[in-house]
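Marked as duplicate of an earlier ticket. Keeping the data here for the record.
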Amino acid sequence: MATPPILLLPPSEGKEPGGTGPLRQSAKLSFPKLDPHRLIVSSALIAAMGHHEASRSKLLGVKGKALAAATDANLTVHQGPMMPAINRYTGVLYDALDVQSLSVRDRKRLSKQVLIFSGLWGVLRPDDLIPDYKLKMGASLSPVGKLAPGWKQPLTDAISRLTEDAVVWDLLPKEHDAAWCPPTPGSATGAPLSILTVKFLDEQTRRKGAPRTFTTVNHWNKLLKGALVRHVLATGADEPNALGKFTHPEGYRYDASLTETHKGRVIIAMVRPPR
């Protein structure tokens, strides 16, 4: 493995409140070329928190006490208490990743190889200090408009040095994947060497002689990806066959016969046998 693979992850809806780091004004995020657009988005978010309750609820996708808490957090994104992004995000992917239990070596790899896409910050490294906030990549924020298209070019440019000639594990959901536009792998100077995505399939019980049938796993997709991230960090897996000896904690195994290439991306099938 000449160059360690890069892993692209989404943030999480769930976030740890509070923090002990420096105020936002004194913190410096990775990829500083994104700072002008970050300021535009964060300022628009603060302004939106002054709108009526129905408007804020539609923008943030929450109601009641959750809306009140999200509003308060968003109003302080420029000066709120901080913590590393890897500790701020508490959703199922990050719970499964369980960063606290990683070895020292794999924790260092996480810091260098993982990039987290964010509707508010564009892209972060795990150790970047961020405040609590609430904003989905799929949101449309006046006067910015839809966030993913607005981030696409600056974000792609910002990470191009890291993704050029690299194997990229794209573990992003569709709304975050829409925020970058890399060249087709191997197609041009500056393109990734390859882009690997993954799908989890539950194989259905079948009668003798009948074809195999599968159900795509959606609900637990993030949890399942957390364990995969741990494996890639531990092994440096950079091609589908590198998953041949990986048994997922939930019983999913690499199936080469169902792995396919679409528009230059390799879609790896992880299959759990009938139970």
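See parent ticket for discussion. DSSP finds nine helices and 13 strands in the chain.
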